[in-house]
Specification:
Structural class: alpha/beta
Distance between the termini: 34 Å
Shape: globular
Number of helices: 6
Helix content: 25-40%
Radius of gyration: 16 Å
Number of strands: 5
Largest sheet: 5 strands, parallel
Strand order of the largest sheet: 3-2-1-4-5
Length: 180
């Protein structure tokens, strides 16, 4: 990523379309798996709806994003909710998380395969990874069009094969999304 990426994401976060729609479904569906305490990282956090939910669950939350506009929004939301979140403007591709640092890592709608080994290493023993992003078999036009930022079928399982799978769900063009 670069300064161009920061400017691109700042522009996107200035629009209401990227203001945050609530916590990731993978987090909501699996709140019961969270530890009672520990350090959590919301990687590529955007406006921080996941960060706020993690903090409400009692975790010490670190929120990293390249966009200072998104982080300012997160700061305002955290203050309004009376929640403390440690945010940092950070190019996570250039400076991925350090090893053995987090009990929980959450990634929502971000994919850079080069940092996957760093994400795995950043998890402490028995740490949890919550990962939600788009697949190439997505049901609608939401998310990126570039195939580099879309997962192939079961690719997430392959990328994180070192980790023990507790819960996994992959949606695509199957079933009826209205029943969701």
């Amino acid at each position: 990523m670069s300064d161009d990426d920061r400017l691109k994401w700042n522009k996107r976060y200035l629009t209401s379309a990227h203001s945050g729609k609530g916590p990731a479904q993978v987090l909501i569906d699996n709140l019961h798996l969270l530890p009672c305490h520990g350090k959590a990282l919301d990687l590529a956090c955007g406006t921080g709806t996941n960060s706020i939910e993690l903090a409400r669950c009692g975790l010490e939350v670190y929120a990293w994003d390249i966009s200072d506009v998104a982080l300012n929004n997160l700061g305002q939301n955290a203050t309004a909710a009376k929640i403390q979140i440690i945010s940092e403007q950070r190019d996570i591709c250039a400076r991925p998380p350090e090893p053995d640092r987090f009990d929980v890592i959450l990634v929502s709608h971000f994919l850079d395969r080069k940092i996957i080994p760093h994400i795995i290493d950043a998890l402490r023993t028995d740490g949890l990874l919550y990962y939600q992003t788009w697949t190439r078999d997505k049901q609608d036009d939401a998310g990126p069009a570039n195939q580099d930022y879309l997962l192939a079928r079961n690719e997430l399982l392959t990328l994180f094969k070192q980790l023990a799978i507790v819960a996994y769900r992959e949606d695509g063009r199957v079933g009826d999304p209205a029943r969701g």
